[in-house]
Amino acid sequence: MKAISLAIDRKMLIHILFSGTLALFICLFPPKVGASDARELFSQGNRAYAEGKYDEALTYYKAVMEKDGLSASLLYNMANAYYQKKEVGWAILNYERALYLDPGNPDIQANLRLAKKEFGLSPEPPTLWKQPFNILNLDQWVWLGSIALGAFCFLFFFGGIAPKILPRKLLRRIAGVLLVFIVVSCAGVTLQYMDMNRGVITGDNPRLLVSPFDSASSSAQLRDGEIVRIAKAYKNFVLVKGPGGNSGWIAKGAIEPVIPSHDWSKSAT
User: Fold this and answer.
1) pLDDT tens digits for 139-154?
2) Domain limits of the chain?
3) Which end of the chain is more exposed for a tag (fewer CB within 10 A), N or C?
4) Could you give phi then psi for residue 80, rounded to 5 degrees?
């Protein structure tokens, strides 16, 4: 009887552990409700785009965004639809956002260059030494650096408790490689973070004002689709630095940050 009781207790314990693990997994990684609906909406948007119904395609794409969030492919298709509608700022903005999520995508890069050329926008000056750091976005550099740092710490912990398993020379070589990954990741995080203050002009050629007031005089005019650097916000205005080096204030409604989570209430770095 004790053996039977023990076996039952073990089964109950295994069942409880399995149920708890499954519940924890569901809480941490909840299934996406309506994922099939989002895929169907995306397909309908693509069909509307192929038929030249760009407004209808954008309606479907925005519905996908509400249900399933942002993705590089969704933003890319939205940018193409805006491009066909000749809505310069929104096309450039969505190409830039798609490129942020998928930095190495050649199709996004090619269409962004084509759009800037066709709309007469001057490309941002290339910096060859920065290009390798554009392979990954900010989140990916953070993940890479965290993994490398964790592996580096584990390596020395493992080498301390079991020094005979890994030769000291091999240990140093692996540690050196991990250190390189850590340094490169830190550089990638820094450069990507510095680019988080980029914005795209989406208004109708807004005036660059000398102060954050509607009655202020203007020093220049920005073009729809131009990339600017966001310095800070004040009430309904944003201080920006244009591609030509001119700085001034524009209305918040005339600009959209490339990173959608940008908080207007805080000054950008």
Assistant:
1) 888 899 999 888 888 8
2) 1-27, 35-123, 130-195, 202-257
3) N
4) -65, -40
